[in-house]
Amino acid sequence: MFYLANRMVQGLIVILAALTLAFLMMFVIGDPAMMYVGPDASSEVLERYRRSMGFDRPMIVQYFEFMRSAVQLDFGVSYRQRTDVVPIILERLGRSAELALPAMLLAALVSIPVGVISAVHRNTMIDYVARFVALIGQAAPNFWVGIMAILLFSSALGILPSSGRADPGSPIWTQARYILMPMVVLSLMPMAYLTRMMRSTVLEVINEDYVRTARAKGLSETKVIYVHALRNALIPYVTLYALQFGWILAGSMVIETVFAWPGFGRLLMDSIRMLDIPVVAAGLTTVAALYITLNLLADMLYTLLDPRVVNR
Amino acid sequence: MKIPSKMIRRALLPSLALTAMAGAVQAHTVTYVLYETIDVIGDPVMNVNYSEQMVSNAMFEPLVWDFDARAEEGEKSGLRPALATEWEPVEGENAWRFKLREGVTFHNGEPFTAEAVKYSIERPFRDDFPSGDKFLDVPIDHVEIVNDHEVIIHTTEPAPILPSQLSRNGAFIMEPGHYQAIAEIDDKRFQPMGTGPYKLNEYRADDRVILDRHDDYWGWYDNSNIEQLVFRNIPEESTALSELIDGNVDIIRLRPDLVDSAENADGVTTVIGPSLVRGMLGLNMDMYEELRDPRVRRALNYAIDRDEMVDALAFGNQDLQMVNVVNPPNDNPDLDPYPFDLERAMELMAEAGYPDGFRIDTIDVMTPESFDYAEIAAAYWGAIGVDVGEVRQLDWSVVRERWAARTLSVHAFAWSAAENTPETDMWAVHDGRQTNSTHWATYSDRYEEWEEMYRELASTIDEDRRQELNYAMQEILHEDPPWLYTYLMPIPMGVNERIGGYYPHPSMLVEDWASIYVKE
After folding, report:
1. How far is B243 from chain A (nearest CA, A)?
2. Record: contact B242-A88, CB cut-off 8 A
3. ipTM of the complex
4. Which of A33, A133, B266, B372 is the Cys-Cys partner for A50 at CB 3.0 to 4.6 Å?
5. Within an 8 Å CB–CB cutoff, is residue A175 touching chain B?
6. CA distance B157 to B150
7. Ranges of H-type helices in B60-170
C-alpha cells in the first residue's frame, strides 16, 4: 500500500513539473497574442488582445493562475477552437484509443507467443525469422510503412480505405475497416520491441533454478514455459508494455497524419504550431498523467506477478 | 512467381464489394481535400489559413467577386457582381455606392438586405473585435443604408480599390440577426450563416466538414447538380493522391512532384491553373550590410537562370517568370524579367566592392512550397561568390514571431494578394507592412520617392493616372529590387474525371463553387 501511495505522490510531482514546463515553454516559443491577431495587426490591437487574454500580467501571477486552474482540471478555452479544452482532449483521446487499444492488444497477442517460441527455439530458423522480422519492424519508419500499406491495400488491391475515419453512425464492420490499416501499422513498432523483450527475458529465466525444478518435477515443457517461466519473464515486459502504450496513445501523430486520423497526436501537434496554450498545457498534462497511470498499473501488475515486490 | 493482381482481386471479391460500398463517392457529392487544419468555420473574418478560407468561401459571399470559372481562358479573373449588382464611387466624397442584389436569402431563410452589409462590413472595425489580421488596411469609416437594397460605404480616405478589397473573406456578408443573438464577438457558438451556395451540415474537427446545397442560392448555374460538398482534411499529400486515384475524393492540390503520378492514373485529370502566388526571396538589408547596395541586389537577380528554374519547378511555362511584385494584368509591359547574365552580375558585385562575394548565413523558408526555388537560388548565387550557409524551413510559429519582429534572414516567401491590384501587390514591400523584413525603407535612396507615389496611387481614382504611377513605381522596384523575383507559382490540381466545370482560382484561397458539376 505504501508502495503504491509512494508511486502516486511521485506521479503528482511529475504532473506538476509537466505543467510548469508547459507554462514556461509557451513563453519561450512566442507570443500567442501575435498568433491570433496576426503579424499585420497594429500595436494597439495587439495590446488589446494581449490584455483580454491576460498576457499583460506579471509572469508569476500568470503562473499561479495557470496552476490553480490546472489542478482543478480547468484549462480554459482553446484559443483556436474557442471551446472548452477538456472535452476537446477527451474526444481526441478517444479517437486515438480507437487505434491504440486494438494495436496494443495485437502487439501483445503477437509478441508474447512469438517471443517465447523464438526463445525456446533459440538459434533455429524460427528464431532467425522472428528476430529478422522484429528488427525490420523496429527499423522501418512508420510513415514509410503507412504509405506503402496504403499503396498496397488501397491503391493496388483496393481492399481497404486509404485514410480517414468512418462516419460515426456507420456499421461496426465499416468502422473496423477504417481502423484496420492504421491500427496494424501503429502496432508494428511496439510489437517488434515487445517481441525482442519477451525473447530475451524468457531466455534469461529458462535457465533459472525454479525452471529446472519444474522440469525435474516432470511437468510438460509447455507447462514449464507458459506457467513457470513466462510469469517471471512478464515483469520487464509489462514495464515496456506500459511505456509503449503511453507512447502509442499520445505520440502517434505520424500515423495519424499519414492516415488522416483525427486523433490526439495531431491535435497536440497543431496546437503547438498555433500556440494554442490551453490545449497544449492540457495535452501535456494528459500525456504525463497517461504515462504515470500506465506505469502505476504496471506496478500493480508486478504485485500480482511477483508478490515479493510488495514486501520489498 | 508473379501472382496476377486479377487473381488476388477475385479472391478478395467480397471485401472489395464492401470497400466499394463504403468508399464509393456519392453520385452528387463532391469531395475536396484540404491539407491544413480547419478550426474556425463560423466566422470568416477570423479564418487564418487557406483551408478555413476555402470552407468559408463555400458558405459566404462578398459584395463583389473576382472570378468566373466558366469564362473564357484569360477572362476568368476580374471584378464581377456578387451580392452587389452595381457599384460606383460617389462624386466629391470618400465613398462608394453599392446596389444590392434582390431576392437573396441567407441559409436560415432571412432576406439579404442593406442591414446585413452594414453589420458585416462595420463589425471588424469595432473596438472589441479580436483580430487585427483581416481587413484593417481598408479605410472603412461607416456604412450608410440608403434603402433595403442600396448602401454607401464611407471611407476615411479615398479608396480607389475598395470593390476589390471587398472581395476578401473579411468582407463576407453574415446574417446579422443570427450573429447579434450571440453576445460575445468571438463566441464559440458561432454557426456559419451566409448566403453562399452551401450551408453547414456537419463539422468534424480534423476530419471533414460536410456542406449541403443551399437550394435558394441565387447564383446556381444551369448544370449545377451538386447536393453535397465535403471538405476532407488529409494532411499528407501522398495519402490524398491515393484517395484521388481510388476515387474516394474528387479534387486535390498536387505537390509538384506528384503531378506525374496523377497524370498517369486512370480516372484522374490534372488542371494547372495560372496563379497569383509569387515566389520571392526577401533580401534583409538590416542583417546583411552588403545587400544595402542596390547593385548587389541587382546582381543577385541577374545571377538566377529563371528559364531553368521555371523548367524545373513550374512545368516549363515561361510566361510565369516574374518581373517584379506586381502581377498581370497590372504589370508594366515595358519591363522584362532579369535575364540570366553571370558576367553582368559579377561586374555589379565588383562595382559594389564585393568581387569575392560575401556570406549569407541562412535563407529562412517561410512556406514549404518555397523551399525548392530557395535552394536553386542559393546554388546560383554560389557562382558569383555569394555563399549561403543553410537553406532552412522554419515552423510557422517561428516564422510569425520573426516576421513580426522583422528579423527573418533572407527569406523565401510565396505570397498572394488576392485583390490583384497594384497597391495590394506592392504592399509586400511597403514599410507600413509590419512584416516587411527587407528594411528597404531604411536603406534605399529611392524609397521616399516610391512611397510618395504609393500614397498618391492609394488615393487616386483616375485610371490613367493610376497606371502612370503604377508603372513608374514598378520601374523603381526593378532598378532597386528589395526582393529576388522568381516566378508565379502554378497551381497543379488533381481532379476526378467525373467532375466538370472545375478551374482553380488563382489565389489558391477560394474556388468558384457554383461552377462545379458532376458529369451525368
Report:
1. 6
2. no
3. 0.78
4. A33
5. no
6. 21
7. 114-122, 162-165
